[in-house]
Design goal:
Elements lengths: L7 H26 L8 H20 L2 H31 L6 H6 L4 H19 L1
Helix pairs in contact: 1-2, 1-5, 2-3, 3-5
Keywords: Membrane, Transmembrane, Transmembrane helix
Length: 130
């Protein structure tokens, strides 16, 4: 296999797979720190390594079956991140003082779920645009 024969969309999907394992580590640490007090916190912890694995396998195997599964997981990742954004914003509001600026600094990181969605959306752009 020679890298020069890989299309840009294939490289992007491969890199997204690698980035999801890094994102998984961060999300897992944050949710572990909060003792997984809500069951919905398990979604990105379980979904991120799955997206990572399937994205990498689909680029290496280069078969339609893995490619289709990658599309489905990217859609789930995009939706999961948006749901996480909702819960994180809601969590900031539950802190003393509500939506005061300081609560955005010390509360749940509202940008992290958007990053989760953004990576999946980038994957979907590579999938449908490639």
């Amino acid at each position: 296999m020679v890298w020069s024969h890989w299309s840009s969309d294939r490289v992007i999907i491969f890199m997204i797979g690698l980035f999801y394992i890094l994102l998984w580590a961060q999300v897992t640490m944050f949710h572990y720190r909060q003792n997984f007090h809500s069951k919905v916190m398990w979604a990105p912890v379980l979904l991120a390594p799955l997206i990572c694995l399937v994205s990498i396998i689909s680029t290496l195997a280069n078969t339609s079956g893995w490619f289709g599964l990658t599309q489905v997981l990217f859609w789930l990742g995009a939706i999961s991140g948006l749901i996480g954004f909702y819960y994180h914003v809601k969590g900031v509001g539950k802190r003393v003082g509500g939506y005061a600026f300081r609560n955005f600094l010390i509360g749940p990181p509202i940008m992290l779920p958007l990053l989760f969605s953004g990576l999946s959306i980038l994957g979907l752009i590579a999938v449908y645009g490639g």
